[in-house]
Amino acid sequence: MIPLHGKPILEFIINGLVFAGFENIIIVVGYRKEQIIEYFKEGDKWGIKIEYIEQKELNGTGGALLICEDLIKEDHFFLTWGDILVSYDVYKEIINTFEKEDQDFILTTNFMDDPYKGAAVYSEGDYCIGIIEKPGKGKSNSNLNNCGIFIFSKEIFPVLKNLKPSKRGEIELSEAINYGINQRNWKVRIVKMEKDQFRGDFGNIKVYEQMNKEIDWLEEFNRLS
What we know:
Number of domains: 1
CATH class: Alpha Beta
Number of strands: 12
Strand content: 25-35%
Radius of gyration: 17 Å
Low-confidence stretches: none
Order of helices and strands: EEHEHEHEEHEEEEHHEEHH
Distance between the termini: 17 Å
CATH topology: Spore Coat Polysaccharide Biosynthesis Protein SpsA, Chain A
Shape: globular
Strand order of the largest sheet: 5-10-7-11
């Protein structure tokens, strides 16, 4: 709900999902959840249906996804972090790849000189062969970072349920992907963003401050909202 040029960051993301054609959205809430629920309500303002579920235990990205299982009715679903903003065309590209290629798993990456703060993604051709979470500065020989936007088959849920928490005490979504690739022969298609393609990571206060000052990116987003 941090304001960005007069809108919560989450509203920019929801506008992008609407632009890509989504009608049903689940938002995982926690701290100060009342602010989110009061602002977005049931989604009528955006012509969509919004459901909310609370993550009472902060047990990682995989834990946040697991609590959504009973609310997800389709065989495949789209997932995005709530603090990552990309061009709305990226959402469209992911959907088009899913529809044209009939992929069960899609992982989106962005280019980074060193993905040590995120998750380094390793690939062969258009497919992921592994992810290393927080690989350490200078330790990765990949420039692909896990962008935080996916399409998953519901096959992800039994894998998540059987994962042991990481050293951080979290159920890591990246570990579920690694397990699926290595143990279940999942083919995880990568949609690679271009090196200079827009991405805002609002887990970084400097990125937020910079985007709050700049308006070049905003005009395009407002045009598509």
